[in-house]
Design a protein that fits this description.
By secondary structure, this protein is α/β, with parallel strands linked by helices. It is built from nine helices and twelve strands. It is globular.
Length: 237
């Protein structure tokens, strides 16, 4: 499932920007299909222009009925009546999908015999201090088993002691959910931490859901700003 809205706050209309001759949302959809990992891939949107564009490229698209605050809510509505076990949320602005990363994320559920894990999501090490301090980049801290402790736009952990061995992780905008966790999310109200950070993954933590983070070396480009789009176009070439 690829949630897609047109009016992004930081970069309105970004999903319709050109990337190598096609709109970003089409590139993301095609990348998800080309992994060969999924029974079906859908774009879920309330935007007429995105809906019509995906149809133009012969893609599968679902129109949202209600208004939604975030992608998880949008997907929960779309899958409510579907007979599915695991749903993967790929952000519409993440066209550089890596098949191995998705394979590793999905493998988490095969190994979870006690169904302890509600969600799984990838993370990658970041060393550039500019990226670490960039509020458009979501960081995550984990416990010794790589379960997420917290997500933030701030640099976490804060380097007060200047310990050089501290590892910083960037959260990559891909989630794999058990269906129950996703449906629960839609029914639970937003709390203060999520409202402050504007990071939907925090809601899962605030209500006690367990998110398994999966390390990856892939550092594709999530397109949040016009500057990101410039980098994405260079990378696409």
């Amino acid at each position: 499932m690829i949630p897609a809205r047109y009016a992004a706050s930081r970069f309105p209309g970004k999903l319709m920007e050109d990337l190598g001759g096609k709109p970003i949302i089409v590139r993301t959809y095609e990348a998800a299909v080309n992994t060969g990992l999924f029974e079906a891939v859908y774009v879920v949107t309330d935007s007429d222009i995105i809906f019509e564009t995906i149809e133009k490229y012969n893609g599968k698209v679902i129109r949202s009925i209600a208004e939604h605050e975030c992608g998880s809510d949008r997907i929960a509505e779309a899958v409510a009546t579907m007979n599915v076990d695991i749903i993967v949320n790929v952000q519409g602005d993440e066209p550089f999908i890596d098949t191995q990363t998705l394979t590793d994320v999905l493998a988490v559920f095969n190994e979870d015999t006690t169904q302890e894990i509600d969600l799984a999501s990838p993370m990658t090490i970041i060393k550039d201090t500019t990226v670490i301090n960039n509020p458009n980049v979501v960081k995550v801290i984990v416990d010794h088993r790589n379960f997420a402790l917290y997500f933030s736009r701030a640099p976490i952990p804060y380097p007060r002691a200047k310990i050089t061995s501290t590892t910083y992780y960037k959260h990559i905008g891909i989630y794999a959910f058990r269906k129950r966790a996703l449906i629960d999310f839609q029914r639970l109200p937003m709390l203060a931490l999520e409202a402050t950070e504007k990071i939907e993954a925090i809601r899962y933590l605030e209500y006690g859901k367990k998110i398994k983070m999966v390390p990856t070396a892939v550092t594709g480009v999530g397109i949040d700003t016009p500057e990101d789009l410039k980098e994405a176009r260079k990378l696409w070439k």
